[in-house]
Each structure stands twice: as C-alpha cells, then as structure tokens.
Amino acid sequence: MHEHTRATGQLPNDAIKKIACHFFDPAQATVMTVRPAEAGLSGSQTYILKHLQTGSKHVLKQLPSDLSIDQIRWTQALADFVNRHGHTLLPVSLDHHEQNKQCVDTPSKIAIHCDGTMWQCLGYIEGLPCKTPRPDQISLATEALAGFHQKASTFQMPPSRTLSGWHRRVLQLRTLLVSLRSPRVDNTVIGATHTELHVLYTKFFQRIRSPKFTANIQHALSYTMPDVHQPVLRDCHWNHVLFSDSDDCVTGFIDIDAAGWDDPAVDISRLLGSWQLENPQSEEWLVDLWPDAFKQYRTSVNAGADFPSRVQVLHDTAILCGIDRWFTWLFTENRYFANMEQVSQRITLLLNAAPAAIRRLEHLSTRGDSN
Fold first, then answer.
1. Which domain holds residue 307?
2. pLDDT tens digits for range 240-297
3. How far, in Å, are 7, 145, 155, 207 from residue 152 at the CA level?
4. Are residues 69 and 149 in the same domain?
5. Which DSSP state fits 251?
C-alpha cells in the first residue's frame, strides 16, 4: 500500500495509538510507529502502523461518515469470504482486541472511538499503483479482477438494496437533460481555485446545451444493459490497484468501501477508463486500446453479452456523470474537500475526455461485440 506524508488534518501519534488499542494489546500498540498515509479526495484519515519488533504493518483507517454500518459489515464480510476462497488481494479487517460489552451491536471489526468516529484496522498490502502502465500490466490487472469476480460470484450475503451503476447513470443523465440552467457559483469556494472552478463549470454547461449533446445522451439512454449482478468493487480506480516492485504481479486492491452488487463490467470500465483518462489524447474504444486485457478477462470469466460495449458505455457515461456530480457536490451541496487542487485536476481530466466520450456514445450502435 503506497505511503505518502499527509500535509494536513493529522492526528497526534498518541491519539492514533489509543485508537489502535481497540485492535491490539496496549503493550503492543505502544511499540508501533505511526505514518500518515496518502489522503484521498474524501479526506478520510488513514495511518500506517508498523510494529518495531516484528516489522509487521497494518492500516488504521477512519471510516467515511456517509457509510452505514451495514455497508461496512458487508464489505468486510466480502473481503473475508474471497480471502478464505483463495483470492488474497483484498485488505482483510482485524477483529477487536476486546469487545465493548456496552456496545453489543457494534460489529467485531469496527471500533467506535471516544470522539464518535468509526475505525477499522486492515492488513497492510505491499505495492504501488501505476499511473502509466504497460499493456502487460493492464492484462495482469484485468486478470486479477477476473479472479476476484470469479470468487465473489458465490458470495451469498445480500447487500442493502441499491440501484446498479447503469440505473444510477440513467437517472442522473435524465435529470441533467431536464434541468439545464444558467451556471451558478457558490461563494463558499474561495481563493484561486474559485476562479478556476468557475471557468470549468461554465465550460461544462456551454457544452451540454448543444443539440448534439442532447441527441447523443438520448441515444445512450436507449442502450439496453443486461441485468448482470454480483459483488464488485465499483471504485476500482487505477490508484487503488497495487503492483509489486518488479511490476510482474498485482499485489492487491485497496479502498474497497464502495463495493456492492453490480455488473462486473463496472470494475473493468472504472479501471481501464481511469487509465485512459490520464491520456486524454487517446480517443479509441477501450477494447481497441487493450484487446489483450479483454481477452485475458474473458478466458477466466463468462463476461456475458456485449461485454466491450457494456464496458465502454459505462465508461463514457461515467465521464459525463462524473463532471455533473463534482459540480453538484461543489456548488449545490457545498461540500468541502481537503485538496481542492486535486479536485480541480480530476474535473479537468473529465472535461478533456468528454468530447471523445460523446462521440463514442453517438456511434455505440454501430459497434459489434466481435472482440
């Protein structure tokens, strides 16, 4: 798991060790070093614990406040299940060191600290993400995902009822089409980033007002997505996939809190699409960019009908919905993000990729599933 120093929002080491005592004997926790891990866009606090004597590492992670206990429990159970069945690439949560007798309903793998925050402690996974992978690395990643999907397909514990990724996209795109209005910028976004985000926001609304955009979205909404559901990771972004130092194997998938019941094509779309976003000059279909990765996946898993098309339409609609979602979070819901520069970079990547995504959606029906 990649380690970088956190710039802000860091808790004192003593406070982190007190939280660690929920999972370790206090005497053991006192001989652990604490290193802040890289902060994601959500700002959820994460720390690397290393035992000075044994050298063993763990990840102490604050759980996002918008996740329910049921969702956390389901994700932890999924990781346990696939690990027991031979797929060891997901981080597995530790049990409490001591159960709190006054909180009998608290899951054994979740600690509620005295300040009300919820934490879990995970096994540490060595490895680094790769922003610009070689084709063989992309095939390795899709092969690892296929292995996870194969094992997870027999996981019987039902999640909370949620809409599939495609149904959420359809609802969001329909809402976007009927609610176009003049750009509005909220004053809570301040400083230099305020002006930059204002420009991006205006640029987005200028694009979606064109008749061609509306026609292409209507065309995409007519796509029939097969009803394929099983446990998937959902947030399978490239920086959540770790490779060994030698880059010859995948060592793990991290940040799996968003896992749920969905089409496995969502994971392939998210992973390959996030790599394509880092190279916006590349406008090809994902299956044309990395045909070997698709073939590798399909040798392990029955991917179902129109798999490349499902992956592509999920990717292209995710670009448009992602832009709309970011601006809704910023200017409608007034959400705060610790790293606004990173937010601006993510939105810029999506905007740069949007024209090609719209063109691919226009020609969706002309593509067959020959790969």
1. 135-366
2. 999 999 888 999 999 999 999 999 999 999 999 999 999 866 789 999 999 999 998 9
3. 37, 10, 5, 40
4. no
5. E
Which residue type is seen at 283? E
**Which two three-digit tokens encode residue 75?**
């994700």
- Do 231 and 362 fall within a single domain? yes
pLDDT tens-digit readout, 57-89? 999 999 887 788 888 889 999 999 999 999 999
Q: Which tokens is 1 given?
A: 């798991």
Phi, psi values for residue 63, rounded to 5°: -80, 140
Q: What is the pTM of this model?
A: 0.88
- If asked whether residues 311 and 180 sit together in one domain, one would say yes
Tokens of 273: 């699409």
Question: Cβ(189)–Cβ(286) under 8 Å?
Answer: no
Same domain flag for 183 and 203? yes
Q: By the 8 A CB rule, do 120 and 110 touch? A: yes
CA distance 61 to 22: 12
Predicted confidence (pLDDT) per residue in 185-202, tens digit: 444 544 445 677 878 888
- Give the chain's largest Cα–Cα span: 67
Provide the H-helix boundaries in the chain: 13-20, 26-29, 69-84, 135-152, 165-178, 192-208, 211-221, 265-277, 286-289, 291-300, 307-327, 340-362
User: 214 and 86 in one domain?
Assistant: no
The answer to whether position 182 is within a domain reads: yes
> DSSP H helical segments within 153-245, as ranges?
165-178, 192-208, 211-221
